[in-house]
Amino acid sequence: MSTDFGKIFGKALRYAFSFDKMLPFFVIDLMIVVSILVFLNSLINAALYFGGDFSSLPLAGQASVVSFLSTIFVFIIIIIVLAMIQLFFSGAIADNARLSYGKKEQHITSSFAAVKKRYWSIVGATVLTGLISFAVNIVPFIGWLISFIVSWFFIFIVQAVIISNKGAVDALKDSYKLFMKNKLDVIVFWLLLAIIGFLIFLIALVPITIVLLPIIVSAKTLSAMALIKSSMPLILICGVILSAFLAYMNVFQEAARTFFYLNVKKK
Prior knowledge:
Blueprint: H1 5-16, H2 19-47, H3 59-100, H4 112-137, H5 143-153, H6 157-162, H7 168-181, H8 183-218, H9 224-230, H10 232-265
């Protein structure tokens, strides 16, 4: 059985255009955007006090620095929590796409129970993949290339956990075996997935560029910090637009991986 890339990507593009599937990722991405803006605003405020010795700063300056350092810590915690939540919904999309494969689409909530049982296996497989990528990435000169290739090996770990009921370690083995048996198909799939994702991002840049035009015009008359602070509302609007497109792209890519995984497993 040959891999029908047209069917896989066509169905994934249609599947992703669904409010209940996109909503969780939209909220997560928007929260990340808001967190970045809060962090950026704190950075700008604290920057006013960097330039002298910390001990000689006035009390207000010290308070600003402490507030900035606290913001960094909170920002890191928020990103970790949101990443953990996103893993849950990625698993939900994988299971939901499996249920919808060749059938009528199901609401995403129908997959929550299945993901709860396998969630920590998804987290474990993701952490192991990250550790392996980090380890090979420190190899001098060619580490980045090895890490790039490793990403092909473990591209289907969520599907291995959700669809094949694998544990964290076995999910990595399953994804690796799938790659080794279907090298060309996986590479072509990865390439098409990246190209379509890039095109979606380019489309997102059109409305974002329109919104940012006033900022670009003002760049000639305002300093960088003043420009950013005065443009926060427009930047937030851009964040909302980008979050919507990223949500669609996240659902599309996870669904495409699921449909490809199911197609190859049928061979």
